[in-house]
Amino acid sequence: MTARVAVAPSEPPSSLAARLARLIAAGGPISVAQYMAAANAHYYASREPFGSAGDFITAPEVSQTFGEMIGIWLADLWQRAGRPAPVHYVEAGPGRGTLARDALRVMARFGLVPQVHLVETSTRLRACQAEWLPAAHWHADFSTLPEDGALLFVANEFLDALPVRQLVKTAAGWRERLVGHRDGRFRPVAGERPMDAAVPSALRAAQVGAILETSPAAAAMVADIAARIAAQGGAALVIDYGHDESRLGSTLQAVRAHAGADPFADPGEADLTALVDFSVLAPIAQTAGVRWLGTIEQRHFLAALGIAARIAMLARRAPARRDALEAALARLTAPDQMGQLFKVMALAAKGWPDGAGFAPA
Ligand code: SAH
Predict the structure, then answer these.
(1) Can you tell me which atom of ligand 1 is nearest the CA of 156?
(2) Ligand 1 centroid vs 119 CA: distance in angstroms?
(3) What does pLDDT average to over the chain?
(4) The pLDDT of residue 14
(5) For the whole model, what pTM was predicted?
(6) What is the CATH number of the domain that holds 333?
(7) Best of 44, 119, 238 to mutate for ligand 1, by most ligand atoms within 8 A of CB?
(8) Could you give the 3-state DSSP secondary structure of residue 261?
(9) Exposure winner among 76, 131, 244, 304, fewest CB in 10 A?
(10) In this structure, what DSSP letter does residue 108 have?
């Protein structure tokens, strides 16, 4: 299953392919990370890919209850932390702003009305977010976030869109996996420079063709936000599809026009993502000074927050929507849909309480 499910055809080809082909002709193959960064920057700048009119559907677009459960988790923690003020809601890669809107509506019922800070690079998506969240402050990265209060940080399907770096084992040893361009097509090629020193010694003897994928950008983002929370107080929920142990292999995937696509075809016209390796992120956060509350499957997180009761309540209020509501619940929580592949990692400042659904360490 592709985690982001395509629902509609995407737009006509861009000039990005031509630009990357010229770049490669002039300077040689580029890294997978550079290719992925350029492709996704173009992709998110040029369209609104979410929901029924876009390429794929994310959890907050499946049901309002997803954002509501996140709002309840944050409000509960904030209350038990003694209702600190000032307090900021920070969301990275908020898409259409749906999650923020649903979470903030629930938080207000608990008396939690934070300032809203959205970290978003796409101008087009910022405009879309502003329709629902007119009072928000926008940031291009974490460096300009406020330094004067607790941060309640959320990121859903954000880290998976950040560029991954790949190393590939060749007969001559480990090399960086690059993207070349020949006969009018982009294709992965192995770099010339030996990279064995960049590979853990246990992996040096891996089979030819093995790929080691890392996400320096995801690691840096988690380190940054963890350091802010350690210094200012607060908590974080990082939700994404991924695994909680490191494994070999490329997880780079493209979703376009209803289906999985070749990630090296038509850069900028498909959504490129990679699975998140949560096992490396927890120690990075801890090193930056926060408590790692745990990493659990999305189905367990949503069940602990009471999503089934909330869906049942909505169905009682609108009986005609019962089937759609139950389908949404299954989509978010069934193990063969988003329930198991998606993980929720929770972090909190030292001195902040444990979060609902995460067993105390
Ligand atoms: N969280 C939303 C959208 C996920 S798609 C949802 O669940 O529906 C990824 C989002 O991250 C988009 O809003 C995209 O524009 C944004 N994004 C991608 N790379 C980014 C970067 N480097 N910095 C900030 N935002 C980024």
Answers:
(1) 1
(2) 8
(3) 94
(4) 53
(5) 0.94
(6) 3.40.50.12710
(7) 44
(8) strand
(9) 131
(10) H
